Structures are given as structure tokens and as C-alpha cells.
Amino acid sequence: MYSLTPGYRVPALQRGLSPTETLLTKLNLGAGGAVLMSALVTPPPMWALGAVAGAAAMLNIAPGPRSAARWAAVGYRRLRERTIPDSAVDRPGATMTWTLHPEHGTVQDPLRRAQFHDAYARALTWAGSQARTAGIQVHVTHHAAVGEYTAHTQTISVHVPKGLGQTDRLLATLEGEFARLGALIPAEVDPLPEVVERCQGWIGLDDGRFAATARITGWPAETDGDLMRRLLLEEGEAIRQAGTDRSIAVLYRPLPAAQSRRSARWQSAAAEAWTADKIKQDALQAANSTTHGALVQGATLVDLDAYLTVWGHSPETVTDARWTASLMADRHRIRLDWLPGQQHRAHIMTTPHGASTQKGTIL
Hints:
Elements: H1 19-38, H2 46-60, H3 68-80, E1 93-102, H4 110-128, E2 137-146, E3 150-161, H5 167-179, E4 182-186, E5 195-198, E6 203-205, E7 210-218, H6 227-233, H7 236-242, E8 246-254, H8 257-274, H9 278-296, E9 302-312, H10 315-331, E10 335-337, H11 343-346
Helix pairs in contact: 1-2, 4-5, 8-9
């Protein structure tokens, strides 16, 4: 819960494409292969070569943090959607949410924190082994609410997609695994608020709050599993003085063992084939060795997304909170992407509703 690296270091993590991007990539590869094979018989028309090259450029050339195709999708969504559609969060399957209360001092004690991570990693490994492809999703949130004192609320949500079978058994087993982390209490999830106002960097909700959400795109490997402690506990006095709430969430998608091995193999091959910088090659080789060792020891790769939301009661307060969060991230060497054009969707990722979203909900 307090770590973005359950059970092993950052290089063992995988970030996959959305289902639509995966399909488009495969179709483009197939079309490219067909064009090359036809060249053995007769020269292909120039429009065919141009179409394949144009599609490859849209999917791979990235002006900024997203590819050109993703920027186009973001613009389309912003024009088409006022708030996030229900279909993005109401996916078929079963979802359960609990509030978690770890034992006092778990975060501050490095030994107990490592034991906490090990127990959580075992739960993720078991969840990944229950499907042939990535299926079960585990979503963790930590919310710091500012009042006379700062109240911390933590939740764990599990989404089991339709089709895995024996949903009750899967949820009951994971509940038993998470109960080892602390006091686990079933929770009711509040309805998703509607977006009534939006700007480039923030949104206004129908409950009177304003929010700005960023994806955490990078963090130092030497955090020692205490990233959430740094963001929410060490900065607690600064949060209280600013008078704004903060939420952090991590969505884990544990991969099955076979898919983890394939992902590690392809990652290693791509690093050797497409990296010319010798220093970067050595760094990737060390990362691949770490990944290999983790897999040999029985760990699983995890496709994850991490988000940070700052809340306020006016556009001015949430803008100031966003600036403060950016300074805090710089101090801890954390990279944030404030998701331009996606704020009307992004805020759900730091609520339990994010457990049932699929890859591609936030691009």
C-alpha cells in the first residue's frame, strides 16, 4: 500500500498498451507484413506504404508524454464528454472495497514496512495466477483530509472481471490475504460525483469540491518503499497549513506467470535491439537481471498506474495546491503528468471507482 514496488524493484514493472492500442498495433504489423510480402511478387502501391508508415507514426511518435494517436483520442474525448461515462467504471464483474487500518507504526518502521510489502506482494502474486491473462485488479487509495487534524483513510478494492468464475472464492481468498495487513472492514463506496465545471488544469464537482489529478510517471528507485509516507505523512504539516486534501492511489494489475516471463523476455530483447547508448544498455541489463531474479524467486510482474489528486474548495485553492504538489514532487524527485484534457476522467482514479477501470481509461 505504501510502495509502488511490491516485492521487487522498479525495473520489474510493466506498463502495457490499452486494448485498442494493442489491436491497432497488431493490425498495423499485419498490414506491414502483407505489404512487404507482396513486394516479392510486385511492387506495392505507394499509398499502401504511406498508410502503414502513417499508422506506425501515429502510434509511436510522441510529441510530449503521449503518442500522436493518444493526443488525438484525448482531444476527441474532451470535445465529446462532459464527465466520465458510466461505461468506463461499470465494467462487468464483481468489485469489493474495504477500509484498511494497519497496525500503528507500520509505515515508520522499515522492518515492519518490508513485512507489509511482502504480504501484499504474496496477495498480488496469487491474484495474478488466477487467470491466463491479466484479469484481477487491485486498487489502493490513501486520502488525507484536513481539518483540526489530518485524518488518513485507506481503502483496498478488488475487481474480478466477468468470466473468471468462482468470484466469491477469489474475493474471499484475497480478503483473507489483505486481513493479514491490518484491520480490514468492508466499506460502501460513495456515488461518483458529476463534473459541473472544468478548466485546463482542474475540474469542479457537484459536491462543491474542486480537483486536479496527476499521474505519477517516475519516482526514484531508492524510495525504499516509503513513497506514500513521504507524500502524505512527512508533508502532513504542509498539507494542514495549505488546508487542502490529498489523495494517492495505485492500480495494480498483476500478470500471470507465463505472461510475466514473456514480458520480461520481450523487454530484454527490445532493450538489446533498440538501445545504442552503452550506459543505458548496461542500466537496462542490470534491470533485466533484477527482473529475472524476481521471477525466479516466484514474484510476478505488475502493470500499474499511480495517481495523485489535490482537492480544494475553489479554483484558486486547487491551483495553489497543484503548485505546492509540483514543488513537493520536485523535492522528492518524483515526476508528475497533470493530464491536460483528461481532468474530467482522471479524478476517479484516486477513488475506489478506479478499481474497475481498464487500461486506456486515462491515456
